[in-house]
Design goal:
The chain has about 240 residues and is α+β, with helices and mostly antiparallel strands. About 20% of the residues lie in helices and about 30% in strands. A six-stranded mixed β-sheet has the order 3-4-2-1-12-11. Strands 5-6-7-8-10-9 form a six-stranded mixed β-sheet, covered by helices on one side. The longest helix has 13 residues, at about 140-150. The radius of gyration is 17 Å and the shape is globular.
Length: about 240
Amino acid sequence: MTETARTEPAQTLRLASYNLHKCRGVTGPHCPERNLEVIAALDPDVIALQEVDFRFGARPEALPRGLIKEMTGLVPAPFFGTGENSLGWHGQTILLRPELAEQAAIRRLPLPGLEPRGALALRLPGLTVVAVHLGLMRSSRRAQLARIVSQAARIGGSELVLTGDFNEWRDKRGLEALDPLHVITPGPSWPAPFPRLRYDRLAVSPGIRVDDSGVFVTPIARIASDHLPIWADLTLRS
């Protein structure tokens, strides 16, 4: 009698991205509790965050790390930030569920361009998530995406997802380096009160199935930041 072949169980994951606009909302004041309420309602397994620190000086955290787990159940991925009191690196951090954080490793990726930019590569078993906040100039964005894709094999992981604020409103122009990946643009995410432009995206390698995706629109999300969060439910082999 021969044994039937066993298939690996599918792993599902809710991935999200959210530009916090330094927790100042659309018109202020600084109120990180609103952003954390949005994140908690979104209920992601992993979320890439942009603009988590104030911009000038020592770049202190705009999103207080002491409130994150209490309000969302998530924890920041451990790495060295921009400064001693920074939560992020170039304003970026990744939050994830504590049980995933135990298996995670993170790497900082310096990126080319006229302004200082960098990406974060989060390695999980069978998956690498690269969080990005790309430059304001299209030439810089092209170079930054090309650098990330060229380093994908070095970063490691059998499957790859890029997500974040791409700062690109075109569907094709500026994204040429992502041709090996499948680009998902859930919908307009900026400006949050009346979204018109699709700045926030994700791109996945062929082995990842995107079961659903969207822009997270609630009354508080419309005022908590100038961006609305995006999300995607992914299935991959564990």
